[in-house]
Structure prediction request, 219 residues.
Amino acid sequence: MQAAGTDPSTSITHGPSRWCRRSIRLSTSGSNETSYDDIRATGGLNEYWYSRFGNLTVDAAVADSARHTYMLEMEEPNFGTAANGDTVTITGHADFSVHLKSATGAGTFTHTASDGTVRGTGTWSATDLIDYQSYGCGIVLGTPLPDNFCGGKVKLRVTLTTPQGQLPATLTVICIIGPNPPDSAFHEGKRSEGAMLNVPEVVNFNHTAGGDNVIIQTG
Prediction:
């Protein structure tokens, strides 16, 4: 990814391309620090989510989502595409509060051209929550899930860090969990989970292209 007007042969080589192995805070009440490596060693985040968050009580997820806090997890890659065929791969984690319109978190991105050439990689950090549209919780396409596993569209204000400097951007992640996903969350009958990344005056990955994520209600 390069700034507008720069030499198109210039690319970003900063890594890593995987979610950085940092300590992430996962707690239902009180404080508990668990490292990424510890979680991976015990079956990965999917197993950890169920063991730590599968029994929370969640009430009227859609109607009162404005007073809740959530955790967005993208352990696996989430993808978006631009009009020119370029793709972006996003991983990471973010905690957000709808009432306070606040968000913190971080992850990685990789920009790949339509011919497979890696144009750039770097990291992103969340600075604010722009909007959260909840699709509800506890079910996906008729299959029951823990009550606090939720879906929706999360739009975050983020800062991208690259060797060429920092860039403001908007990161949008869609998770198709819940009884109320809108028709717009599906494209030609397919689930439109994934990520979109808009970097003004640089590139706009404005279509989701698949991915694996979950939004967990934490409070």
In short: The longest strand covers residues 118-137. DSSP finds two helices and 16 strands in the chain. Residues 2-64 have pLDDT under 50 and may be disordered.
